Amino acid sequence: MSDFGKNTTTDDVLAGKDLSGTTVFVTGGNSGLGQETGRAVAAHGAHVVLAGRDQAKLDAAVAAIKSDHPDAKLETIICDLGSLDGIRACGREAGERFDKIDLLINNAGVMACPFAKTSDGFEMQFGTNHLGHFLLTKCLMPLVEKGSNKRIVNLSSRGHHFAPVDLDDPNFRSREYNEWVSYGQSKTANVLFSVGLEDRFTDKGIHAYAVHPGGIQTNLGRHMTEEQSAALIERISKSDPDFSWKTIPQGAATQVWAATADELEGRGGVYCEDCHVAEVDDESTTGGVRTYALDKGNADRLWTISEEMVGETFTG
Ligand SMILES: NC(=O)c1ccc[n+]([C@@H]2O[C@H](COP(=O)([O-])OP(=O)(O)OC[C@H]3O[C@@H](n4cnc5c(N)ncnc54)[C@H](OP(=O)(O)O)[C@@H]3O)[C@@H](O)[C@H]2O)c1
Questions:
Q1: How far is the CA of 225 from the centre of ligand 1 (A)?
Q2: pLDDT digits (tens, 9 = 90+) for 272-313
Q3: What atom in ligand 1 is closest to the CA of residue 128?
Q4: Mean pLDDT confidence for 116-132
Q5: Which residue among 25, 26, 31, 36 has the greatest number of ligand 1 atoms within 8 angstroms of its CB, and so is best to mutate?
Q6: Given CA atoms 283, 193, 150, 31 in this order, what sign does their dihedral have?
Q7: Exposed, middle or buried by CB within 10 Å (0-12, 13-18, 19+), for 145?
Q8: Which of 191, 252, 241, 189 is nearest to 218 (CA)?
Q9: 245 CA → ligand 1 middle, Å
C-alpha cells in the first residue's frame, strides 16, 4: 500500500509514470480540480481532452497548461452537462474525433446553487452532477471500451454524508428544496453510479471509482454568499477540528491516484479519499463512506430511474 495521504500532490502520485498513449477525458476541465488533473496527466505524456461548456474558458485553461508544459497534447470539446441534447452532441463529436478513451474523469460539478432546472427540467445539481455524467458516460462508453487500463472516476464529496438519494423525488417536486440536501444527494449519486458501473462493466475490464478530493478553494463556492461560506466553514470546523484546506494539486491528487494507481488494478466500485480507499463509516464526520452510498439495491434503483429520466437504456 502506498504511503500517500492528505498532503500528496498530483505530481507525487504520477512520479515515475509515463502516460504516453493514454487518452484522458476530463469534464469541468477548464477550472479547479479538472484543469489540474488535465495539467498533471498531460505533463506525464497523456493525450488530454478538456471538456467544458465555454470555449473561451477552455482556451484559457489550455493556454495556462501550455505555459507550463509547451509540449502538452491537449484538445477541447464543448459539453454542457445541463442539456441532454448537448451531451449527445458531445458524444457524437467525440466518436468522430477520438479513437478511444482510457481514463474518463467525470469531474464537473455545481454546488449549493439556488433552486434551478436544467434545460430538460431536472433539478440543477442532480441533473448536472449525476444525470449529465450518467448520459455522457453512456455516450462515451464505446470509446472507453476501446481503451486499455480503462477507468472511470466520478467526483463525489464528503458532502455525500448530508443526504442519500431520494429515489422517489430526486428532483424536489414534492419536497422543499434545500441546496445542501440537493448537493449531498447528487454526490451520493456519484458514488452509487460508480457502484453501478463496476457491477455492469467489470467483465469488460472497466473499473469505476468515486472520489472525495478534500476541501479546496476553487470556483465551486461561487453560489455561496459570504454568510453561507462562513456558516459552511464553521460547520466543517466543528465536525472536523483538524480541517485544513488542500492546495489544488493536493485536491486533484486523489482523482489522479484513482485513475492510475497500480494497487487499484482490477478493483473498483469503491470510494477514495486522501489517496486511499475509504472505510465504510456511518457515524464519522471526518471521513469514510456511508453505507447508503455503496448499497447495490440503491445503485440499481438509481440506475433504473436515471435511464427513465434520460430516456435511454444503458447496459453493460
Ligand atoms: N473544491 C472542493 O472543496 C470540493 C470538495 C468536494 C468535492 N468537490 C468536487 O470536485 C469537482 C470539481 O470541483 P472544483 O472544486 O474544481 O470546482 P470548480 O472550479 O467550480 O469547477 C467545476 C467545473 O464544473 C463545470 N461545470 C459546472 N456545471 C457544468 C455544466 N452544466 N456543464 C459542464 N460543465 C459544468 C464548471 O464549468 P464552468 O466554469 O463553465 O462553470 C467547472 O469547469 C466537483 O464535482 C465538486 O463537487 C470539490
A1: 17
A2: 999 999 999 999 999 999 999 999 999 999 999 999 999 999
A3: 31
A4: 98
A5: 31
A6: negative
A7: middle
A8: 252
A9: 17
Distance CA 63, CA 270 (A): 34
For residue 183, what is its C-alpha cell?
448537493
Task: State which amino acid sits at residue 131.
Answer: L
- Ligand 1 mutation pick, 218, 272, 274, max ligand atoms within 8 A of CB: 218
**Interaxial angle between packed helices 133-145 and 84-97, expressed in degrees from 0 to 180 and rounded to the nearest 10:** 20
Q: What cell numbers appear for 314 in the block?
A: 444503458
| Selection from 129, 116, 110 nearest residue 177 by Cα | 116
pTM beyond 0.90, yes or no: yes
For the domain 10-310, what is the CATH superfamily, name and number? Answer: NAD(P)-binding Rossmann-like Domain (3.40.50.720)
For residue 38, which of 219, 217, 255 has the smallest C-alpha distance?
255
Which 8-state DSSP code applies to residue 226?
A: H
Mean pLDDT for the stretch of residues 186-194? 99
Amino acid (1-letter code) at residue 216: I
* Separation of alpha carbons 183 and 198, rounded Å: 23
Cell representation of residue 39: 495539467
Check if 88 has its Cβ closer than 6 Å to any atom of ligand 1: no
Cα 73 from Cα 62, distance rounded (Å): 10
Report which of 182, 274, 287 is spatially closest to residue 236, judged by C-alpha positions: 287
Whole-Å CA distances, 239 to 160, 178, 218: 15, 20, 21
User: What are the cell numbers at 198?
Assistant: 463496476
Please check whether residue 21 is in contact with residue 261, taking contact to mean a CB–CB distance below 8 angstroms. no
Which sequence spans correspond to the domains of the chain? 10-310
- What is the predicted pLDDT for the residue at 85? 98
- Does 5 have pLDDT greater than 70? yes
